[in-house]
């Protein structure tokens, strides 16, 4: 029996149907069942019950997946950031990280959908130690926003937001997950306060498709060396890839990849940048009329290139003439000794000499940079490098390492090494920072804390000390 017929009967209003039918009487229990269905079906459709949607106040942050070779880590190192953000591969329920995943308090079943106006629709797949229901009544949420520097930049730019959203429990009627991560800006400037790598290309590994300070550093370096002519954007696209390929080809690194920065390419680019400000090896014209200092510079340069074997006498003789001629012939500048300009270092020959000199020095410098990087890698592998930022109240192996490094440099008493960052350690850090001119007073930001500059300085000193040991005793010394 229809609901409107029941209402009409109760109101004692007679209604004549359009078509008369002989109907069998409906049993009472069936009528009751139909009434209950008619009452509760609309309520169920609206989600009333334990799976009903409800409004909730949220305090929302963002997290990311750290990867090796970043310029910056919010905690100072890869492993420390993994502790804070998780390993960055899967959520707590095993779901692979993806745009639209959130971490929520344990009271939220996996699969719960949360709609955040102006941000997106998210599904609960993860947990977090700080992701709890707060005493204020607000609930903490953490949105996953990507990998590497771009993800970290996006998380830092997102900050802390207060949003009132809707919760759709698992098992109820839920909207589909929808979140376009690119709607949240990745502000790479937010990374600078956490930059430990500084200007070291060997400490970062920018890859095609990425965005961040590592890419910006690569682009600036390629621009300085004349291989990147576009605006520095911090985005690794086809133009950056082409520039890196051109540099690799020019410096004999054709087997190195161009879709990411390899160690060999990083070392060679870094060395090439260092040579930019250097004076040319031969600065004046060299011929029979040249001064002794000008002649000596030519003799030293050509000896370095393996073409001159005489004394650095400052006298222009046949040995020097033949060395200059040999170089000119290799570069296709002259054909025979009778050609004009043969055996004479003029502007064209001087430019080619500078180019060859620089390339030879760049190769030698790149080998040194690679050796320094290898020392750093060994220190990391053996746990002898501080791998995170430290401050008052911290404790553990990293603090112990800090105290030992400060003790070796005369800033901390050896007998007080205990792994606890207290007033004594803070004072030692402060004195180290003042001695290294990292700060100017104890009121400076970061004074008494191991932040990016202090961490970078400590690591650099340890690296150089061990490199000198390797130079004198060989790699077995490590």
Outline the structure in words.
- With 478 residues, the chain is of the alpha/beta class.
- 40% of the residues lie in helices and 9% in strands.
- It is built from 13 helices and 6 strands.
- It has a 6-stranded mixed barrel.
- A hairpin with a 3-residue loop joins β3 (113-116) and β4 (120-126).
- The chain is elongated, with a radius of gyration of 35 Å.
CATH second-level architecture of the largest domain: Beta Barrel
Describe the largest sheet: 6 strands, mixed, barrel
CATH class annotation of the largest domain? Mainly Beta
What kind of oligomer do you see?
single chain
CATH topology category name of the largest domain? Barwin-like endoglucanases
Uncertain parts: 1-24, 39-47
What is the terminal separation in angstroms?
A: 91 Å
Radius of gyration: 35 Å
Look at the helices and sheets and give the structural class.
Answer: alpha/beta
**Strand percent estimate:** 5-15%
Shape summary: elongated
Helicity range of the residues? Answer: 25-40%
Q: Could you state the order of secondary-structure elements as H and E?
A: HHEHEEEEHEHHHHHHHHH
In spatial order, strands of the major sheet run 1-5-2-4-3-6
Number of strands: 6
Q: What is the count of distinct domains?
A: 5
* Tally of separate helices: 13
Average pLDDT level: 89
Task: Give me the secondary-structure topology.
Blueprint: H1 3-10, H2 28-45, E1 54-65, H3 78-85, E2 101-103, E3 113-116, E4 120-126, E5 139-147, H4 148-158, E6 161-168, H5 213-224, H6 238-250, H7 263-275, H8 292-304, H9 318-330, H10 347-381, H11 397-408, H12 423-435, H13 452-473
Parallel strand pairs: 1-5, 2-4
Antiparallel strand pairs: 1-6, 2-5, 3-4, 3-6
């Amino acid at each position: 029996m229809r609901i409107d017929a029941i209402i009409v009967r109760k109101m004692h209003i007679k209604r004549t149907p359009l078509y008369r039918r002989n109907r069998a009487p409906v049993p009472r229990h069936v009528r009751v069942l139909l009434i209950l269905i008619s009452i509760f079906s609309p309520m169920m459709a609206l989600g009333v019950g334990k799976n009903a949607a409800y409004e909730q106040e949220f305090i929302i942050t963002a997290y990311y997946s750290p990867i090796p070779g970043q310029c910056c880590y919010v905690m100072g190192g890869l492993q420390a950031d993994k502790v804070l953000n998780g390993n960055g591969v899967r959520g707590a329920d095993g779901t692979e990280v993806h745009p639209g995943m959130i971490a929520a308090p344990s009271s939220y079943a996996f699969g719960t959908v949360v709609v955040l106006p102006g941000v997106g629709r998210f599904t609960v797949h993860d947990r977090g130690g700080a992701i709890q229901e707060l005493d204020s009544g607000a609930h903490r949420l953490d949105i996953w926003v990507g990998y590497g520097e771009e993800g970290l930049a996006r998380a830092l730019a997102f900050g802390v937001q207060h949003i009132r959203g809707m919760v759709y429990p698992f098992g109820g009627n839920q909207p589909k997950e929808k979140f376009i991560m690119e709607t949240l800006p990745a502000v790479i400037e937010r990374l600078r306060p956490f930059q430990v790598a500084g200007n070291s290309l060997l400490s970062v590994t920018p890859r095609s498709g990425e965005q961040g300070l590592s890419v910006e550093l690569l682009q600036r370096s390629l621009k300085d060396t004349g291989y990147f002519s576009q605006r520095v954007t911090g985005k690794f696209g086809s133009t950056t890839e082409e520039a890196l390929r051109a540099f690799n080809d020019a410096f004999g690194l054709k087997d190195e990849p161009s879709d990411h920065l390899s160690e060999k390419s990083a070392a060679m680019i870094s060395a090439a940048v260092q040579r930019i400000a250097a004076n040319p090896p031969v600065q004046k014209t060299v011929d029979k009329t040249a001064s002794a200092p000008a002649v000596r510079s030519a003799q030293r340069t050509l000896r370095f290139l393996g073409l001159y074997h005489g004394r650095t006498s400052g006298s222009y003789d046949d040995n020097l003439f033949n060395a200059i001629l040999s170089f000119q012939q290799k570069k296709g500048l002259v054909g025979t000794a009778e050609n004009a300009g043969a055996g004479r270092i003029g502007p064209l020959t001087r430019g080619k000499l500078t180019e060859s000199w620089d390339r030879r020095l760049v190769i030698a410098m790149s080998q040194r940079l690679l050796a320094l990087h290898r020392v750093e890698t060994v220190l990391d592998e053996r746990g002898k490098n501080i791998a995170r930022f430290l401050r008052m109240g911290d404790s553990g192996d990293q603090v112990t390492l800090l105290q030992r490094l400060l003790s070796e440099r005369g800033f901390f008493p050896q007998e007080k090494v205990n792994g606890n960052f207290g007033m004594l350690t803070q004072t030692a850090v402060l004195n180290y920072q003042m001695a290294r001119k990292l700060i100017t007073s104890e009121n400076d930001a970061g004074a008494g804390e191991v932040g990016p500059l202090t961490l970078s300085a400590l690591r650099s000193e340890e690296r150089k000390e061990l490199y000198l040991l390797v130079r004198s005793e060989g790699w077995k010394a490590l």
